[in-house]
Each structure stands twice: as structure tokens, then as C-alpha cells.
Amino acid sequence: MTHPLEPLTPDEIRRAVTTVRAIGRLDEAARFATITLDGPSKEALSSYRPGDPIERRVRLVIVPGPESTVVEAIVALPAEDIVSWEVRSGVRPALLFEDSLRSIVALKEDPAWQQAIRRRGITDFDKVQIDPWPTGNFGRDIEQDRRITRCLSYYRESPTDNGYARPIEGVVATVDAARGEVLEVLDHGVVPVPTATGSYYPEDNQPLRTDLLPLDIIQPEGASLTIDINLVRWQRWALRVSMDPLDGLVLHSVGYEDGGRLRPILHRASISEMVVPYGDPGPVHGWKNAFDVGEWGLGRMANSLTLGCDCLGVISYLDATLANEQGRPYSVENAICIHEEDYGILWKHQDLHGGRTEVRRSRRLVVSSIATVGNYEYGFYWYFYLDGTIQFEVKLTGILSTQALNPDDLTPYATVVAPGLGAPVHQHLFCARLDFEVDGAVNEAYEISTEALPVGEANPWANAFIPVATRLDSELAARRNVDPAASRFWKFVNPEALNGLGEPVAYKLVPGSTPTLLAHPESSVGQRAGFARYNLWVTPFDPGERRAAGDYPNQHPGGDGLPAWTAADRPLTGTDIVAWHTFGVTHIPRPEDWPVMPVEYCGFHLVPVGFFDANPALDVPPSSGHCH
Ligand code: NI
Q: 225-439+512-609: which CATH architecture?
């Protein structure tokens, strides 16, 4: 161990688990929902010097039994001290894989479910795919004090079929996932199972194109980056990268070297939550709204990436060390892809008077991972550019969630994507947690909107417009939405650090695709995903405020996370702040999204505004060899 921000090692995971098991408060049935590095605190990190002894804290979320109770334990290493042991009742962790499996096994043996499936002419239950879903919270008695799943069924003629092509419509089963007990099987009526296979395999989509010629990325001297454990350096950038079981890809200590000094920009950046509310009001689909961070976990679902397919060029991979539910470490190989890409031109001018042309190529460092959450894939891409810009992009792909439709049933809530097959409207709302430290801990948030001035003596040509900056002084005032017509953006300013022009240094958050939650605020998902009602929230830094919908959204009645924390309307001036940005897509499915979706993109940019005194990429040399 050479740095406090290095990921947990397999040995640290084993020692933490041994420590909590050794005190005799857990029985064999106890399971480990997540085992993660806790901290280091900002104080410990800023005072750390290479060679210092490092105390590591391991945070274990333990599920002691089948009730809705978790234990949050913190173990200090190397001392193996339990420094905290907190029992929390009435909360559920992200759906355990064991609970999912138990739900499937229990349901396949359940007579009521079997009868409902037989009613659809299906007698071979081995050909039925069951998808357990987190259930939300609708205040029903069968939800209380249990960890439950709600299960939907699909038909697979062969094991590699696309199950989502053949939903077994109308059957909704609720299972006590911890006890393997079927609580309820509802049959909302038979709809014919669609017949088309919806295959996206090459053998079923012949003939394939033959006119795509080779396109190779050649980097004869390698990539211009170095990696030391999880410290990535590329051009002026330095950052650390880790994989959290829930947040997925996490960046730490993102800084830019400028004049021999590493200037901090972000202390930590991650996707803190993401919700997928569906817009169909019917009994089979109206309850569907997955929280893919807090109910599933983007790191737990991370793919092992493949060279030449997921990433192209000279690639460096990082493996992710995670813990399984028995508390044993395992490795997701090639979970994080790190490479560089050409990105068109960086800047150019052709001087029409002097006849001289200068042009520079742009390139970017790419740090990415891809998670498969059930039917969907999410690719998470952080980009770092030569001019100090940071970009975050989500690539949404995979397979639509589907429903079978009677041919004469027209519904405004779904798009017909194949005969007898619909895909309900839904949203994907991500919330990025951006812990800024622009040239230091104390940052302030400003909203900048461009406004046209009234016509008058000061505006005789009626053309005038100006940027109007408003400091966001407290949490409730900092709940903001986009205004594209005003070119609105938000700026994170260090009031104590001035640039060479005498202005405070800053980075701005430039929003991209920014829907907000369409479900009513009083709806179940409206209560549980309150974060998604605003594109921006700002909070004073608190290490316990990690996820926009709270730590335990699974079956949570709502109100936790950003709405709860910001109710106190804490001040945001002269302090360390965290920005939370909600963005995403409202997905009205298209026929072209079937049977597998071409990537749809969403995200945002973080752009220096007076962080530098001039274009920081003037020192990028002209290309050699390519440009004649
Ligand atoms: Ni979608």
C-alpha cells in the first residue's frame, strides 16, 4: 500500500471480514452487501506524505438475516479494530444476487405461478426467464419488514434467445426474496406471447455488410499515459480511478499540472444514483422504476472489457477488486478501460492576410467502464482534453424493457417495436456527484444566465445582452433547472484564488441532455427519486452524503437523500461544496431501438472559465507526419 486512495486489496477485504466475524455477533447466514474503502478523510488525504503509515478503514454493509435490517460496520486496518457497528432497521441493501436467485427458484416451484404460465400454453418452465425487480414502495402490507422482489417472466425457446422478445404478459409475482417465499401471484389477463425471436446475433441477420474496410488505430510508440496502481497521468492531467460496487467508476483527486504545480479541480466524481421510472399506468408496468445504483450497483454489474471490441487502440486496463456476498474478494478483470483517442481539431486559424495556417489536433484521455443492469447496458466515459475540459458521457444501449400487446390494443404509453411487442416510455435520470475543489476546498456556486437588456437609452440598438451571475447562497436557492434559451450554466468558483487577470478561478458545468422527473412529486417514485426534480443541487460537503436518493433506496418510502439533507437550507458560501447534477434521457422507444439499441448519448462538460489566463493548449505542437 503506497497511497490512501488505492483500492482495497483482496487481503484487506479478507481481514475486514475475519474481524467482523470474529466477534460472534453474526451467524453463518450473514451476507455482505458491499465492502468498500471508507474515506480517507480529506484531512488525512491532504496531510499524507509518501512513506507515512496509512490507516485504512473498510466499510461493510452486512445483512445479518432475512429481515429488513443491515449492520454498517467500519473496521480499521492494519489494527483490525471495529471502530463502528451500527444496526439500521427498516432498510434494504441493493438486491442481493442470492435473493434474486432464491426468488427465481421459489417462483418456478410455485403452483399459482405455474398455472398462470400454463394458461399461456407454456408447459416447459425451464424455458421461462424470470427477472426479479426491486419493487419500490407502495405501502402494502406484504412489503413490510421483508426484502421482496417483483418478478416478470419471459419465454426463451432456446437458452441464448432474446427473452425480451417474448414477454409473458400479465403475470406479476411478489416474492419474499430473503426467505424464498412466494407472497402473491397476480394474473392480469392473457396476451399472446409474441412469436418473433428478436435475435441480434449475426447468424440471424445475414447477409452481413462486406464493404467495411479495416480501420486500425496505430500508436507505434504506445499511449502517452502512465498508470501506477490507480494513479493515471496523461499530459497535464493526474487522477485516481476506482470501482465502487454501487457507484461504479469513481474518479479521485483530479488535477491539472500548470506551471509546475498540480492544481486540484475535483476531489471526487461519481454517478451517485440513477433511476428509470416507467410511464405506463397499468398494473403490470406502473410500479417499474429501477434505481440502478442503490438497488443494483453499477460496479457489481461491471463488464470485463475486450480489446478491439469495447475499446480500440493501445489500451490499459484496470481490474476491479470487489467482495462477493460471502465476503470473499474476487476480481473483475479489465473492468476499467484507459486509452487515448484522436478528437478532430483542437484549434485552427488560417490568416487570410499573412497566409499562414496553424492547426492542432485534439486528443482525449478516456477512462471508461460498462455495466449490464438486466436488459440494459450503460457505458460510463470520462474524457480529459488538452485544453483543460472534462467531459462525462453515458452511452445507453442493450435491450428495451418490453410488454406483449394485443394487436387491437392501442396504447399511448408504449411504442410497437415488433408484431405484438411494445416498449413502454421511460426515463433514465442520472445524478452525478461532483465534489469540486477548484484550486482548493472553498468553492462557491454561481448560476449564469444570459439576458437581453430592455430597449432604452443604454441600449439604443436594442441588441444588448449580458451574462447575469447569481451566487447560490443556500441549499434551497441552489435547486435549479436548465434554461437553454438563456444558455444557462453553473460555475464553481474559488473566491480566494485569482487568475493572472485578477478574477477568481472557476470551472463551469455545461449541461447537455437534461430532462427532470415526469412522475408526480407525490407518486411513489416521485418521493423516492426527489433528486431528479432538479438539474442542480448544491450541498456543503458532508462525507455521509453519498447518494442522491440516500444509501438505501430499495423499498424506501421516499424523502431520503438530497431532499432530506437540503431541508435545513444550509449556507453554501465560504465553504467546501458538492454539486449534484441530474441529467439523462426521456426514452420514447423507436422501432430502430429493437432488437438491440444503437447507443444513445447523454452527459455534461466541465470547462475551465478563467482557471487559466489564456488558451492552455498553445504549447501543443503541430502534428508531424500526418499533415502535409
Ligand atoms: Ni431507455
A: Distorted Sandwich (2.70)
Active-site annotation holds for 292: yes
How many Å apart are CA 449 and CA 436, to the nearest integer?
21
Q: 379 CA to middle of ligand 1, Å?
A: 13
pLDDT digits 0-9 by tens, 144-157: 999 999 999 999 99
Q: How far is the CA of 326 from the centre of ligand 1 (A)?
A: 33
Residue 173: name the closest of 267, 226, 233, 108 by CA: 108
> Can you give the pTM of this predicted structure?
0.97
Domain spans of the chain, in order of start: 10-89, 97-204, 225-439+512-609
In the reported structure, the alpha carbon of residue 426 is separated from the centroid of ligand 1 by a whole-number distance in angstroms of 6
Average pLDDT, the chain: 97
Distance CA 400, CA 376 (A): 7
Angle at CA of residue 118, ends 115 and 123, nearest 5°: 120
What separation in Å is there between the alpha carbon of 301 and the centre of ligand 1? Answer: 17
pLDDT digit string (tens) for 376-418? 999 999 999 999 999 999 999 999 999 999 988 889 999 999 9
Q: Domain 10-89, what architecture?
A: Roll (3.10)
CA atoms within 13 A on the CB side of 442: 8
606 Cα–ligand 1 center, Å: 25
CA 264 to chain centre: 23
Catalytic residue among 164, 317, 376, 383: 376
Would you say the C-alpha torsion 257, 262, 267, 268 has a positive or negative sign? positive
> Quick check: is 201 catalytic?
no
Distance from residue 428's CA to the centre of ligand 1 (Å)? 6
Task: Kindly give the distance from the C-alpha atom of residue 427 to the centroid of ligand 1, in angstroms, as a whole number.
Answer: 6
Q: Tell me if 306 sits within 8 A of 334, measured CB to CB.
A: yes
Q: Which helix (H) or strand (E) holds 334?
A: strand 329-350
Beta bridge mates, 237? 234, 256
DSSP-assigned letters across all residues of 299-333: TTTBPPP-BTTTB-SS-EEEEEEEE-TTS-EEEEE
| 519 band by pLDDT with thresholds 50, 70 and 90 | very high
CATH, range 97-204:
3.10.450.40
Active-site choice (131, 292, 560, 593): 292
| Same CATH fold assignment for domains 10-89 and 225-439+512-609 | no
Cα–Cα distance between 148 and 143 in angstroms, integer? 7
8 A C-beta contact, residue 284 and residue 169? yes
Indicate the residue type of 606.
L
Quote the CA–CA distance of 61 and 322 in Å, as a whole number: 13
